[in-house]
């Protein structure tokens, strides 16, 4: 199986941050704004989930959302998720995949408000993963990083910022 197989099998569409996606779940129940932290501008679904596929020539551009995001590995080769913690500037690299001996994990969490982006690991044709977000994803909570601002704030991560911008 190749990337085109998965894109067609799941009816995936181009994702604004790069790659392809298909929303597979959106809770019918809503959390009211009054029950959410102040960073949310309105009510949100309890949870959402997507399939997300990146090919070797794709990157998921640096961005952040207002919810925790759980990543799940499904198929293809490993995916590297680069996470910059905004308060400390610490960079961590999560390697999603099926080989724990190579430091790969099936699941990982990107905390709310963290800057993050991803790309298939070197030598990987494609990575098929899933992302589960709670409270549910809403484009009102999505912020694409501005490279010039990121470079001013995190100059020590120039290579990653340039790679994922």
Automatic annotation (TrEMBL):
Pfam families reported in the protein's UniProt record: Cupin_5 (PF06172)
Domain annotation DUF985: ranges: 5-145
Protein name per Swiss-Prot or TrEMBL: Cupin domain-containing protein
Lineage of producing organism: Bacteria, Pseudomonadati, Bacteroidota, Cytophagia, Cytophagales
